[in-house]
Design a protein that fits this description.
This is SEC-C domain-containing protein. This protein is mostly helical and 336 residues long. The protein has 15 helices and 3 strands. Strands 1-2-3 form a 3-stranded mixed β-sheet, with helices on both faces. It starts with 11 loop residues before the first helix and ends in a 23-residue tail after the last strand. 28% of the residues are buried.
């Protein structure tokens, strides 16, 4: 399904089945693909089938990249079809484990919020913010939903602004302020007979919907292929003709950064980097009925990895680890 496909035109059951089949073809991407399949099953109303997919992931022998996110999604789904006690137990376990990934915190806090557990939602958002953002000079984009969600819940609780709310305000970029978006009294505007009040509320709702779309959308990225040093060595030993594409690993890394900067300067949005492996590339070549030494196959391979959700957004934040794998901050490595 393309990201711009209208929701009313999606057969969620069929899309979930397609993603499950794709996961069988690409086991290295099974986690991301099955999570998307479970989301489609939830949208179709088949929550027990979605729960079965979450259980399948949690029971898999292969290690999960985001086990706490899978647990959080399972808990949120269970609560929606009257398995509240089990959902609460999973949520308590996640909060006790205190994962360093913001995604499971967002899911469990919003699940609590959706079921009117505002105090617990506030505590969960606050625990996550303190854990992940204390003494962090630049909040990563993945943590912004924590700050925005905490701001929203605090407005509903009638709490006064604090330093985290002020930070959320500075990160918010829409024309309608967070205070307006999260005002508990704005619902009364929808019953007003004053056209000016109704028009103002419609403007706020449009801004809020735009924010949700921005957060939920996963547009197809323009991805550049990156080979780690050991993988590039193995690739060139097996297929020497590709040396014309990759004279050296250092030049390969420099070319990636230059290409992405040129694309960004030309106005190309949604740039990303995908990391290749030789076995995966060979399997892709076989599926295309050609040989891996065909250089024309490389951009197709990059596009396929991106379509399977393997792209990392570029550029990283300057304080985040560089995409090249050096372990240095991007601002001190290729971001200089």
């Amino acid at each position: 399904m393309r990201p711009d496909t209208p929701a009313e035109n999606v057969d969620h059951t069929a899309e979930a089945a397609r993603l499950e089949r794709t996961a069988g073809l690409y086991p290295e991407d099974a986690e991301a693909l099955l999570l998307r399949a479970a989301a489609h099953l939830e949208l179709s109303g088949d929550r027990p089938a979605a729960a079965a997919l979450y259980d399948r992931l949690l029971a898999s022998e292969a290690g999960l990249e985001s086990p706490y996110l899978v647990r959080a999604l399972k808990a949120s789904n269970l609560w929606e079809y009257d398995h509240e006690a089990e959902a609460r137990a999973i949520i308590d376990g996640i909060r006790t484990a205190a994962p360093r990934d913001p995604a499971p915190w967002v899911v469990v806090a919003e699940s609590l919020e959706a079921h009117d557990e505002l105090e617990q939602a506030h505590e969960t958002f606050t625990e996550a913010v303190r854990l992940l953002l204390t003494d962090v000079p630049e909040p990563p984009a993945t943590t912004h939903p924590l700050l925005f969600g905490r701001h929203r819940v605090r407005r509903m609780l009638g709490a006064a602004h604090d330093e985290w709310d002020a930070l959320a305000d500075t990160l918010h970029s829409l024309p309608v302020t967070l205070d307006e978006l999260h005002d508990p009294k704005r619902v009364w505007s929808l019953g007003s007979e004053n056209p000016a009040e109704l028009e103002a509320e419609i403007t706020r709702l449009r801004a809020e919907v735009g924010a949700y779309r921005m957060a939920l959308s996963r547009p197809f990225p323009v991805a550049v292929l990156h080979w780690p040093a050991d993988e590039l060595t193995e690739l060139l030993e097996a297929y020497p003709s590709l040396a014309t594409e990759y004279p050296s690993h250092e030049e390969h890394l420099a070319t990636i950064e230059t290409a992405l900067r040129e694309l960004a300067a030309s106005g190309t949005p949604n740039l990303g980097i995908v990391t290749g492996t030789v076995p995966s590339y060979e399997a892709f070549a076989a599926s295309e009925g050609t040989t891996p030494d065909d250089a024309a196959l490389l951009p197709q391979y990059a596009t396929t990895l991106a379509a399977r959700g393997r792209a990392l957004p570029w550029p990283p934040q300057r304080s985040a680890a560089c995409w090249c794998g050096s372990g240095r901050p991007y601002g001190e490595c290729h971001g200089v």
